[in-house]
Amino acid sequence: MSRQPRIHEPLPYSFTEVIDAIASQHKPAVQSMATRPFLKWVGGKRSILPDLLARMPERYQTYREPFIGGGALFFAVQPGRAYLSDINFNLILSYQAVRDDFDGLIALLKEHQAKHCKENYLKARERLCTENNATKIAALFIYLNKTCFNGLYRVNRAGQFNVPMGSYTDPNLFEDDVIRNDSKLLQGVTVKQHGFSQCPIAREDFFYLDPPYHKVYAQYDSSGFGEPEHKKLAEWCGEVHRAGAYFMLSNSDTPFVRGLYRDFHIESVSASRSVSCKANQRGREDELVIRNYK
Predict the structure, then answer these.
(1) Residue 131, domain CATH
(2) pLDDT tens digits along 23-81
(3) Which structural domain range is residue 264 located in?
(4) Are residues 251 and 111 in the same domain?
(5) Do both 98 and 69 map to the same domain?
(6) What is the pairing mode between strands 246-252 and 283-291?
(7) CB atoms within 10 A of CB 137
(8) What's the farthest any 2 CA atoms get from each other in the chain?
(9) Less Cβ crowding at N or C end of the chain, within 10 Å?
(10) How many CA atoms within 13 Å lie on the side-chain side of 124?
């Protein structure tokens, strides 16, 4: 039986100090480098990063995140070895473009920023489905992400992005220093497009799992992510556990989710929610952090 790692108790330090302490412990690729998500992402984890960082295993081999999304935890930890994946094809192309074609991507983003208007936005939505150049797809995706309503990603049954434009007259599509550092961090990182069950499992690796939340948002791609998929994910987490790897999973605090993971360590944390266009439907609510270690 492998030794169970210790976790850090919540620390009475500032948010920045928590990130710096945990990042240095996990041997980041570049020390003290300002990295953070280059995308807006519904359900992003910036509001609960201290909770997640405090609950990571003390030691692990490779950091693996099969629902990378905006990657808030990845960019905070800055792991030396990482495997990032997601089923979202355009999202993965964006990570690859930031890693492999930074200069070409930035040039295209500057063009989109200069041309931004409703007409350009609607044309970009159409081109996202027809463009065949990887860097151009990534630039379209980032442009739409930064100018659509609330950073929402939603597709119709045909797999076409259909989120309306947000109220942005002079959008800032990127911060040069941040996205440049993101590119440096991604050097040597494996980035793949596939479902969670195709992510390799190795002993003592660490998995952070942030799937579309139960009863919150399922239309992440044209196939959706409903209760059957949540059950499959729970079964796969069992495989991760039996392989001697560590996982930490975020999800809605519902009886269904608690039942799926009743054999693991379940905690409730308070997170902010801002998806709704109605202010009275935003705020903080409890969600679960589930681990196979204590």
Answers:
(1) 1.10.1020.10
(2) 444 444 444 589 999 999 887 788 899 999 999 999 999 999 999 999 999 999 999 99
(3) 15-87+194-291
(4) no
(5) no
(6) antiparallel
(7) 21
(8) 60
(9) N
(10) 28
